[in-house]
Amino acid sequence: xxxxxxxxxxxxxxxxxxLFGGFFGWGIFALLGLVGLILWVLLMIKAYQHETFRxxxxxxxxxxxxx
Length: 67
Prior knowledge:
Radius of gyration: 15 Å
Shape: flat
Oligomer: single chain
Largest sheet: none
């Protein structure tokens, strides 16, 4: 759920690139990439330590889909 949502946001920003052109558009695009990288590393560390970590919004959506 986490990375699927980030991917959808990045695709939407790529299609709206002309709307947010210039540094602002690329800044948001790069920021989403950085957030994805940080979450990826954090979630890998938590999985390696056998800890349960729930990403606030994504965990609720995943729970509603799983039920």
